[in-house]
Amino acid sequence: MAMKKTFLVLAALAAAVSLRAQSFETQVVDSLRPFILEDAFADVGACGVLDIKTIRPFNLDEATDLVKPCIDGVARKYSAKAVTEAGFLSAPQSGRPGKSGLLIKTDMVPGSKAHRDLVASIGRREGRLLGHLVKVLTKDEVQPASISTLQKAIDGCMLLTVVRDVRSGEDFVKIYGKCLTRNPDLKITEIRPGDGLTVTVKTDATGSQVEAYNGFVTVNAGKGPVQVMVVAYGSQIFLP
Q1: Which residues of the chain have pLDDT under 70?
Q2: What is the separation, in whole angstroms, between the first and last Cα of the chain?
């Protein structure tokens, strides 16, 4: 009988120790959870688009439209705010334009779990989504470039009163190209359409003037205002 009681006491002690161990393990896991990087795109249905395989690469405008619902879903997952748009990821330097790509503007705090998860998830994809470089902007962080100084020249172009659609860089060049190349102050020697709503400009201007051309211009089009990205090169740079 005494042996039976001893066995029951030992069993109870073992159970108590096991429970304490499990409780401690649970506490450790819970305390480490905020530091464990997770896939920000996991369980977000709209992010399935990130694995689309196509013969023709998506241009920047197409990629922006496709990625936006995914990032919106990620923002909801982390109770955050996020806006996805095409933009410059770095400022222009020495006559070379800044790198263009996808900007994800958020209200995330730098180093927060949401921010670390999102940045790490993009990093696992070599810093690209649908083939385009990505930059995540945290709360109050300013994007490298926004409005091109060519906006003033565009606003001063004497055009027909009939508003025409601008759906591509080619449309922009047809409508505004001559206006820009004929402006002696701009020193633009060539303007050509790029992918989507993008144009490439080559100019004899130098230094800060050519760098300030990089950015967006807004034009009045058939369906309302349209933003066109301007990528500017100095004359000493070979135009690709």
Answers
A1: 1-35, 91-98, 142-145, 158-163, 237-240
A2: 93
**pLDDT given at position 29:** 41
Give residue 172's pLDDT: 92
Edge-to-edge strand ranges of the sheet holding 128-129: 82-88, 100-106, 132-137, 128-129
Residue range 147-181, pLDDT digits in tens: 888 988 888 886 655 567 888 999 999 989 998 99
Domain boundaries along the sequence of the chain: 45-137, 150-234
d(CA 201, CA 193): 9
The single residue listed with the structure tokens 């819970």 is 30
- Determine the pLDDT at residue 30: 46
What is the 3-state secondary structure of the chain? CHHHHHHHHHHHHHHHHHHHHHHHHHHHHHHHHHHCCCCCCCCCHHHHHHHCCCCCCCCHHHHHHHHHHHHHHHHHHCCCCEEEEEEECCCCECCECCCEEEEEEECCCCCCHHHHHHHHHHHCCCCEECCEEEEEECCCCCCCCCECCHHHHHHCCCCCCCCCCCCCHHHHHHHHHHHHHCCCCCCEEEEEECCCCEEEEEECCCHHHHHHHCEEEEEEECCEEEEEEEEEEECCCCCC
Give the strands of the sheet with 224-234, arranged side by side.
Answer: 188-193, 198-203, 224-234, 215-221
The pLDDT assigned to 234 comes to 83
